[in-house]
Every structure is written in structure tokens, then in C-alpha cells.
């Protein structure tokens, strides 16, 4: 049996350990917001990786967005040097998970195993991927103890809310500098035989329409900001949404519906604020003088960010011309440029070869509809040799009864271990 077959067998032999590790991670409810149990999960991983011979650092993202004494943003970076000098392969996984929501039939933090799947919030997004990367690294170290270079594993905060208390903070501190790291694999759930090369761009903005408060029995004495926002929405429906749907990209974005430009109305708030649940009275009769909308615009690599913003402002100006007393403010909340690694990048080639060896077929190359922490590694760290690859089905992320398949985790861990062999073991 050659070394690559031994590596695959070694990962398979650790199947029970992989399941148990995934269960342990799921059972720590690292909900974001607000950012619960970050230190607990980092301490757990710290003990595990120290035992495997890694040098570890616990890093709090002090001063980052979201960091506070009540909810500190903790991150873990672990590194294991090889016997000889060489390149560094870094596996980066986020530790935070989104709200549970409704509709679960399985305990969301139980880590229950049923029909070959591990269930729980964060199972596929992305604690199963984190566990797979750890098992892959440990198996590789045992089979190839004389490897060259270094292996890094990071567990980082806040990817679900932009990654500013996690990868962005670490990138600013140099942890993803090309002087330190050569290859980055982010085990996001893009399917076990897919390599994700990057993501679309995102532009978030808040639009506020203005009016004048008055008594609700005499609305003609006021100016309804909600009606003004309704005119904005009508303009979106009549002109903006059709225009966006007509734009297509050459990026291999999945699913197919995301190969166009999109806009989501994330929220609308207008008029009197909602009262506490224990309030039993009626609202007061007032004409709303403010209405706020948050929009989430996803754009293509062929689009310019300046034109994306100008298109929304032009739409608002058209509404202004058609409506007496229409006034608005618009402010940017967040922007991320599209990112896409080249197909011939070293980490892409290596993972592609490993997928061929494990599954007996060529990898599929895709781009994510939403952003993930590659944006910070690319833009802040200036490291282009970065992809997402991991177990799990993207469509299950953030859904009730989220799960990750055990066979998928084992096979993805085999791909990761073979990638380590290709990049460091020879």
C-alpha cells in the first residue's frame, strides 16, 4: 500500500473520532449574534491541537466590530512545523453559528447521529468542515512525520456577521501574509467534490425616506414616509429588478439563479416602534415621519462597485422627480468586492488532484453566491492562493435540521490529507 492509500485508510480509521469531534463542536452553542461561547470552543480546540503537537495562540480581536467585555471575540491559531523547511498550508474555519430559528425536529445543539448524518446548528456550516480538517492534519502527521513546511489550523469568530472579529482582524495582524502562509483552504460546505474559487460581491445600504408626523385622523396634515418608501419599492419592481435579472456572469456561480445580479430587501422599519410583548395597549395614531429600508445587493465580477451604488441613487432620484415632497438619505453599510482564484493556482490544482483520487472523477469548479472569509484573505492578507473546500451541502446552511453526512466528512478529510501530502509530504 503506497503512502496515499495509507493516508486514506488512516482517515477512515478515525471515522468515530471525526464524528465525536463534530458532535462536541455542535454541542457548544456558539451563537452569533451575540457571540456566545467563543472562548469555550477555542479552549477545547486548543487542548486538542496541543495534544497533536501544535503550537497555539488564543487571540482576542480587541477593538474589532462586535468585540466587547461581555462578548469577546476569541480566535485560535495553531501551527505545527515540519522537519524540513517548506510551504505552509492553512485550514481556516469559523466557529460561529447563526440563530436556530423554528421548525426543527432534531435538538439543534444535540449533535445527534441518525441515518449516517450528524445533526445540529453549524453541522455543515461549518463545524463538520473544521473537524474534517483537524482529522486530516492529524492523520497526515502520523503517516508522514517527516513532512516539510508547516500546517496551520485556525478557528475564527464572526464569519456569519462579516468576519471583522475573526479573519479580518487576523489578516490585519499578518496571520495571512504570503510571507507566512502559502495555501489556504476554508472548509465551507460547498459539496465534497467541488472547489469553490471565490464569491460574488456585496453592497449593503440603508435607505431612509422622510415625512412629517401628524395625527392619524388627519393624515393630509402630515407626510407619510412609508408611502414614499412604497414608491421606492414600486420603482424597484418595475425597473430595477428586471434590469438586474438580465445581467449574467461568466463566473461559475451556484446555484444557477445566482449567476445574475440580485437585490434582497433585508428589512423595512417605519412609523411607531414595536412595543414590548407584555404591552397590552394600542398604538398611537400618528403619520410616520421616517421609514428605513436595508438592501442587500449582490453583484458580479463584471460590474463596477461605483456603478452599483450609482444605480440605486439614480433610482431614488427618479422617484424624487415623480413625487412632491419626496426626500431621502442613503448610507453605505458594507461592501465586499468579488473574489475569484485562478483555476491554475497551486492549491486549486492540488485539491483537484486529490478529489480525482478519492472520487474517481474531476472536481467541479464553482463560485459561491454569498461571501465568506476568502474576502479578507484576498483583500487584506493579499493572499490569492485561497479556496473553499469542505463537506456538507450549501443549501442546508442556516436551515432547520441542518446536518452533515458522515461519509462526506470522511471523504473530504481524505481529500484534505492527500492535499497535504501533495504540497508538503513529498
UniProtKB/TrEMBL annotation:
PROSITE patterns: ARGE_DAPE_CPG2_2 (PS00759). It catalyses: N-succinyl-(2S,6S)-2,6-diaminopimelate + H2O = (2S,6S)-2,6-diaminopimelate + succinate. One of its GO terms (molecular function) is metal ion binding. It comes from Roseovarius litorisediminis. Its cofactor is Co(2+); Zn(2+). Its EC number is 3.5.1.18. Pathway: Amino-acid biosynthesis; L-lysine biosynthesis via DAP pathway; LL-2,6-diaminopimelate from (S)-tetrahydrodipicolinate (succinylase route): step 3/3. One of its GO terms (biological process) is lysine biosynthetic process via diaminopimelate. InterPro entries: ArgE/DapE, ArgE/DapE_CS, Bact_exopeptidase_dim_dom, Peptidase_M20, Peptidase_M20_dimer, Peptidase_M20A. Belongs to the peptidase M20A family. PANTHER family: ACETYLORNITHINE DEACETYLASE, ARGE_DAPE-RELATED DEACYLASE. Keywords: Cobalt, Hydrolase, Metal-binding, Zinc. It comes from the Bacteria. Residues 198-318 form the Peptidase M20 dimerisation domain. This is Probable succinyl-diaminopimelate desuccinylase.
Amino acid at each position: 500500500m503506497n503512502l496515499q492509500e495509507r493516508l486514506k485508510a488512516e482517515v477512515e480509521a478515525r471515522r468515530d473520532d471525526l464524528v465525536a469531534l463534530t458532535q462536541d463542536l455542535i454541542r457548544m452553542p456558539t451563537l452569533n449574534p451575540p457571540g456566545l461561547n467563543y472562548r469555550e470552543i477555542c479552549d477545547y480546540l486548543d487542548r486538542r491541537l496541543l495534544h497533536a503537537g501544535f503550537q497555539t495562540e488564543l487571540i482576542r480581536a480587541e477593538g474589532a466590530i462586535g468585540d466587547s467585555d461581555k462578548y469577546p471575540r476569541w480566535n485560535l491559531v495553531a501551527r505545527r512545523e515540519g522537519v524540513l523547511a517548506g510551504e505552509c498550508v492553512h485550514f481556516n474555519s469559523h466557529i460561529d453559528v447563526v440563530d436556530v430559528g423554528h421548525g426543527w425536529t432534531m435538538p439543534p445543539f444535540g449533535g445527534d447521529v441518525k441515518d449516517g448524518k450528524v445533526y445540529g446548528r453549524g453541522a455543515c456550516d461549518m463545524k463538520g468542515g473544521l473537524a474534517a480538517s483537524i482529522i486530516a492534519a492529524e492523520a497526515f502527521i502520523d503517516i508522514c512525520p517527516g513532512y516539510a513546511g508547516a500546517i496551520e489550523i485556525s478557528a475564527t469568530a464572526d464569519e456569519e456577521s462579516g468576519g471583522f472579529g475573526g479573519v479580518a482582524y487576523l489578516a490585519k495582524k499578518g496571520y495571512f501574509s504570503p510571507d507566512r502562509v502559502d495555501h489556504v483552504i476554508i472548509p465551507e460546505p460547498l459539496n465534497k467534490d467541488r472547489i469553490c474559487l471565490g464569491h460574488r460581491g456585496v453592497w449593503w445600504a440603508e435607505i431612509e425616506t422622510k415625512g412629517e408626523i401628524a395625527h392619524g385622523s388627519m393624515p393630509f396634515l402630515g407626510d407619510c414616509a412609508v408611502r414614499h418608501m412604497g414608491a421606492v419599492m414600486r420603482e424597484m419592481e418595475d425597473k430595477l429588478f428586471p434590469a438586474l435579472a438580465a445581467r449574467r456572469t461568466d463566473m461559475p456561480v451556484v446555484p444557477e439563479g445566482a449567476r445574475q445580479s440580485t437585490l434582497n430587501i433585508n428589512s423595512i422599519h417605519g412609523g411607531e416602534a414595536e412595543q414590548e410583548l407584555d404591552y397590552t395597549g394600542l398604538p398611537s395614531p400618528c403619520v410616520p415621519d421616517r421609514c428605513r429600508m436595508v438592501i442587500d445587493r449582490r453583484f458580479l465580477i463584471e460590474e463596477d462597485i461605483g456603478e452599483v451604488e450609482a444605480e440605486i441613487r439614480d433610482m431614488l432620484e427618479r422617484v424624487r422627480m415623480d413625487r412632491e415632497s419626496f426626500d431621502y438619505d442613503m448610507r453605505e453599510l458594507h461592501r465586499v468586492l468579488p473574489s475569484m482564484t485562478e483555476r491554475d493556482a497551486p492549491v486549486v490544482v492540488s485539491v483537484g488532484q486529490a478529489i480525482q483520487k478519492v472520487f474517481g472523477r474531476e472536481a467541479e469548479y464553482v463560485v459561491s453566491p454569498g461571501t465568506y472569509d476568502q474576502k479578507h484573505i484576498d483583500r487584506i492578507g493579499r493572499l490569492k492562493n485561497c479556496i473553499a473546500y469542505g463537506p456538507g451541502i450549501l443549501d442546508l446552511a442556516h436551515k432547520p435540521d441542518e446536518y452533515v453526512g458522515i461519509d462526506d466528512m470522511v471523504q473530504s478529510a481524505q481529500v484534505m490529507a492527500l492535499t497535504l501530502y501533495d504540497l508538503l509530504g513529498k
